[in-house]
Amino acid sequence: MRYKTREEIPLEYKWDLEAIFENIEKWEYDFKFVDDSIPKFADYKLTFKNSGEDLHKTLKLDEYLSNKLGKLYLYAFLSKDLDLNNSTFQNLEGRMKLLVSKYQNATAFITPNILEIGEKTLYKYMADIEELRIYKHFFENILRMKEHTLSADKEELLALSGPALQTSYNTFSLLKATEIDYGKTTNEKGEDEEISEAIFYGAMYSNDRDYRERVYRQFYKPYMNLKNTFASLFTGKMNADVFNAKAKNYSSSLEAALKPNNIPLEVYHNLVDSANAGLSSMHRWVALKKKILKYDDIHPYDMYVSLFPDSKKDYSFEDARAIVTNTLTLMGSHYIEAIKECFDNRRIDVYETKGKRSGAYSSGVTVGVDPYVLMNWNGTLNDVSTLIHELGHNMHSYFTGQVQPTVYASYPIFTAEVASITNENLLHEYLYYNSTSKLEKMNLIETYINKIVSTFFRQTQFAEFELLTHEITEKGNALNAEMLTNHYTDIFKKYYGPEMTDDKEEFHTWARVPHFYYNFYVYQYATGLAASEVLSKNIMEKGLPAAGKMMSFLSSGNSKYPIDTLKDAGVDMTSKATIDAVITKMNTLMDELENLI
Ligand SMILES: [Zn+2]
Known about the structure:
By secondary structure, the chain is mainly alpha-helical. It has three domains: 18-164, Up-down Bundle (Butyryl-CoA Dehydrogenase, subunit A, domain 3); 181-225, Helix Hairpins (Orthogonal Bundle), CATH 1.10.287; 230-311 and 412-597, Neurolysin, domain 3 (Orthogonal Bundle), CATH 1.10.1370. It is built from 25 helices and five strands. The strands form two sheets. The chain has a three-stranded mixed β-sheet, covered by helices on one side. Strands 1-2 form a two-stranded antiparallel ribbon. The protein is globular, with a radius of gyration of 25 Å. The two termini are 34 Å apart. Zinc ion binds next to helix 18 and helix 19.
């Protein structure tokens, strides 16, 4: 279904934003209220530490206003995303950003002051005042970071260094977004084509192999030509991470990245070690792909192309709703009821229209408002999968928002992808067992394997490289383009195995990946996938008892540390068995595929 204008689309497929604010006037009223209330914090700051009552009063005001702020923000950014060219909503969003930063400055005193109150007094306050007791985990989490919180003047000095330490990433982004010239090539039809990042990613899925190769070789040229520049930016980022870690008394930059969420370092090492132990599965996949494609040699630019291009099936949004609902019946009646509300209460904006933001997302937790999903429906299998993925996020936000008090009503990146990928896995199983076509089955298996390759193996490969380059920098050794290329080459070859052809372009991938500037971020994609693998398997095998545990995970928000909420759900992220589950699944899928072929 395609619509020319938003007006043509039936109401049921469009967001009900009036559930957040009836109209802009109401929004303006709350905006003014929050803006006028911010100065109150200046008074509260003076009395904050005096007593348990004062502490409680400040926390309550912060919660009350940040909930309002959350609603204001949600309304502004959802409205803007429906029509990116609408200047009214651009303006609302712009004003929101200023208000949020004003708010953050006004409340920045809270955390350091809680530290200053200290453990003993906080426990005394909690003993005296019942309403403060729910903050126990919140306080403990702040106290836990005491040795990494510096004196006020040092923190200020460190904050001043922030913009300078951002230069590497800013320059990298600018270069990539505006100044790199990828040049031209000819497309599949023989016409001139200007290369861009989007063209590159699109071309990697093309069935025209020569075209894939042309784009690939051309795309990498600037990264190879400018390798010294990129190496300098890369090492600048490494130096910044190492500086920050040392300044804040961490023993390593890995610890500095993981400790704020209380993730044990062994989770990271475990991931890398266990993935390494399972690399023969990656090698097997490369060889299998080469065999099915009937190539004499296989290159990195062959890794994305679909093996079964004829299996394309079309799904209407109504089909998808039925599939999603049937799949998720496994999760129990509470979950299904919430999914139904999400569809019926117009929490999904389905169709693409001019000016609407592309892609898909779920809006996250906003206290007092049920979350929203943005889609751009095209009727592909990928869209069905995206829908159930985003609904996974939505349910995580929904139950957390329903159950948790404001102070815990959010969740960290480390657990964010678990609910969504678990849903994708359940969907795969549902479609696979309800499919009568061999081609469709093979396509489903390939999709699943691709997900494991790109989300698990490739991200762990990046995580390994990231760890190595940080460690080299920590030992006081300098990195240059040649060293980065050599280290990247070693790790790439180890992951892709002997069948993969050496393309010097690929060995310069370190120069182009923005995630290397995100400070130990990507491993969470891999751990998220591993956790989902265990959880979806539990739900399929054990049914409602496992789904019940999953429901408590979905409702737990930040009330515990992420490792502990996942343990409650039934998965131990410190155990090698969790990572091994992914490799076992990958092998099972390849066995099935070989059988079908
Ligand atoms: Zn997601």
